Automatic annotation (TrEMBL):
Pfam families: Hydant_A_C, Hydantoinase_B. Residues 120-641 form the Hydantoinase B/oxoprolinase domain. InterPro entries: ACX-like_C, Hydantoinase_B, Oxoprolinase-like. It comes from the Eukaryota. It comes from Ilyodon furcidens (goldbreast splitfin). This is 5-oxoprolinase. Residues 48-96 form the Acetophenone carboxylase-like C-terminal domain.
Length: 677
């Protein structure tokens, strides 16, 4: 909210004043930088009614500079200053003193003092307050970033962590980020300890430090309070940067075999020291991959620096809001309710495990042990055995038998498996609780070292975050028979040159469940991003979106149908390097209880000279003007018994997709076939 006082109108502004200059100065003061030549959105609001405990009430709005000294204002009212807004609640009175201060007299409504003892109403309020902090961090990050990947696709996450680094609350951003971010914060606590000072901000992305894959840069800010020599909270934001160097534009190389080929690496890098942004040092680190054979430094340094500043600004907002919460209730109360929120999540998971065990007994299976297995497209198995202790409401998730580390980039750091597990547990809990550290308290996780789920320190991991994570989710849900497999892939598409870099993930079909059909054309499980708007895509990059639709018949048939995948065709106008990193091209998403599997995906390249090439699941290829990339994403598996399918109802007559082609001129098309036709 800005006024034009002190900024008179001129030939290039409106008559009421130069609001642009007023806004720019306010923006610079709040965030520490400006973004020249960016459009400014104006949303002019004057409130006349506000909602209080007794409902909507007429609320007067005043400008501070227009109020005379000694004037008294009865609440409810709003007083607007250049830098703040003051709410005068009902039964309260505001008076302006001769010194220019506002003196508030609080009414006589009875107030209850807050203590550290548990109050269920306050527990709900604090849960939403913590989540609101993460959401506001996200809004600041989206507003101040400039890259397509963060500003438009929303490929970022924000969260609040306790003094031990445990996740307290998060906004509903990207699931694969949230569980792993806790590992990142805890690594910095172990690594830096007392070296963390007020005014420091840490940057990290290395898998050994809780990173997911290198393009996901995590910015961590410790929150200090006067009189306490250690951080009382941490706030963090993780954003996917579309290019941080490496062997291919977009920093998502399909054939990387070592971490150094995937871009710039940060373990415990001080991005801000004593309040000073370390631009020179971080620039040097972002360009460092050029020292390795066939690698380049970042191809879009301007976006990297701007988005890192935006992440710092988002964390600053989170730190301010945590401080305001502590000022309002006191540190002891806030940290007490932080513990209650985590304990509530723990209790919910224990209850879920007990209920599952009871259902198993009612079904006379006798065993409180469940198993499942699925495979990556290269045949690498992911195996899980879950042993449930009904009395304690605890479980052991044992991934022994999972395949060894691969010569490629589908290795997933341990933090990724924990992210998938905490996400699945949260989904299976039948109540609304924040996703936080408490979900994992009743769980023991066994992951064999040297496996694809806990690879060596320098293993390539860029595909583990976006592909293997989805397979881990499928394996967990299969063990509990929660739902059929979703597309099991994020369908990673990146392209670029020495001047540009673009990255997107593409939706597919969701798996069906015991009482629902799978959703079509959605991001599922570990991803939760938008697709770039066609207008923005075509304006900023040398590409035309030729086709974007659902993929009919790709969902599995059954009592409850699997969701449909999508078809997306990109026509390129300039020379670029295209990288495709996908899964579920060989092994189809499974159906459950007799439900049909979803269709596998397919990546085709239509050359301008008429040739059509199958690119396979993972490839990098140089494109010429006129080449078109055609992406067919997997569908979801169906859920339904074999008897339901044999009854011949309308669902079983649904068209099936046969993975064959019919040639029509120089264009191959998927053809649908009725059963028996």
């Amino acid at each position: 909210m800005v006024t034009a006082d002190g900024y008179p109108g001129h030939a290039h502004s409106c008559q009421a004043g130069d609001f642009r200059s007023a806004f720019t100065k306010r923006y610079l003061k709040e965030f520490g930088f400006t973004i020249p030549d960016r459009p400014i959105s104006v949303d002019d609001i004057r409130m006349t009614k506000c909602y209080f405990e007794d409902g909507y009430m007429d609320t007067s709005v005043y400008l501070w500079e227009e109020l005379p000294c000694g004037n008294s204002i009865q609440g409810p009212a709003i007083i607007i200053d250049k830098n703040s807004t003051i709410l005068v609640e009902p039964s309260c009175e505001a008076c302006l003193t001769e010194e220019g201060d506002v003196c508030l007299t609080v009414g006589s409504d009875p107030q209850c003092a807050m203590g550290t003892e548990l109050n269920t109403v306050q527990l709900s309020i604090f849960s939403h307050r913590f989540m609101s902090i993460a959401e506001q961090m996200g809004r600041v990050l989206q507003r101040t970033s400039i890259s397509t990947n963060i500003k438009e696709r929303l490929d970022f996450s924000c969260a609040v962590f306790g003094p031990d680094g445990g996740l307290v609350s998060n906004a509903p951003h990207i699931p694969v980020h949230l569980g792993a971010m806790q590992e990142t914060v805890q690594y910095q606590i172990r690594s830096l300890g007392n070296k963390l000072k007020e005014g420091d901000v840490i940057l990290s992305n290395h898998p050994c430090a809780g990173g997911s894959h290198l393009p996901d840069l995590t910015v961590i800010t410790p929150v200090f309070r006067k009189g306490v020599n250690r951080p009382v909270f941490f706030v963090a934001s993780r954003g996917h940067h579309a290019d941080i160097g490496g062997i291919t534009p977009g920093s998502m190389p399909p054939h990387s075999t070592s971490l150094q080929q995937e871009g710039a690496v940060f373990v415990s890098f001080k991005l801000v020291t004593g309040g000073v942004f370390q631009e020179e040092a971080v620039t040097e680190a972002l360009m460092a991959p050029a020292q390795y054979p066939s690698c380049s430094g970042t191809r879009n340094l301007h976006d990297n620096l701007s988005d890192l500043r935006a992440q710092v600004a988002a964390n600053q907002r989170g730190s301010q809001l945590v401080g305001e919460l502590i000022d309002c209730y006191g540190l002891d109360v806030v940290q007490a309710y932080m513990g209650y929120i985590q304990s509530n999540a723990e209790l919910a998971v224990r209850d879920m495990l007990r209920e599952f065990a009871q259902r198993r007994r009612q079904q006379k299976t006798g065993s409180l042990e469940v198993e499942s297995e699925d495979f990556m497209d290269d045949g690498t198995p992911i195996r899980l055995r879950v042993q449930i202790n009904e009395e304690e409401g605890s479980a052991v998730f044992d991934f022994t038998g999972t395949g060894i580390e691969v010569w490629g980039n589908c290795n997933a750091p341990r933090a990724i498996t924990l992210s998938a597990l905490i996400y699945c547990l949260r989904c299976m809990v039948g109540q609304d609780i924040p996703l936080n550290q408490g979900c994992l308290t009743p769980i023991k996780v066994i992951i064999p070292p040297g496996s694809i789920l806990q690879p060596s320190q320098n293993a390539a991991v860029v595909g583990g975050n976006v592909l293997t994570s989805q397979r881990v989710v499928d394996v967990i849900f299969k063990a509990f028979e929660v739902c059929s497999a979703s597309q099991g892939c994020m369908n990673n598409v990146s392209f670029g040159s020495e001047r540009i870099g673009y990255y997107e993930t593409v939706a597919g079909g969701a798996g069906a469940g015991p009482s629902w059909h799978g959703r079509s054309g959605v991001h599922s499980h570990m991803t939760n991003t938008r697709i770039t708007d066609p207008e923005i895509l075509e304006k900023r990059y040398p590409v035309i979106l030729e086709h974007f639709s659902l993929r009919p018949g790709s969902g599995g048939a059954g009592k409850y149908r699997g969701g449909e995948g999508v078809i997306r065709k990109l026509l390129f106008r300039n020379k670029v390097v295209l990288s495709v990193l996908t899964e579920r091209r060989a092994i189809r998403p499974y159906g459950l209880k007799g439900g049909e599997d979803g269709a596998a995906g397919l990546n085709l390249l239509h050359r301008a000279d008429g040739r059509i090439l199958n690119l396979g699941a993972k490839t990098s290829v140089s494109l010429e003007p006129g080449d078109m990339f055609c992406l067919y994403t997997p569908g979801g598996g169906a859920f339904g018994s074999e008897e339901d399918l044999k009854k011949g109802g309308p669902q079983s007559k649904r068209r099936r997709l046969h993975d064959t082609f019919t040639e029509r001129g120089s264009v191959f098309e998927y053809r649908m076939a009725q059963e028996g036709v």
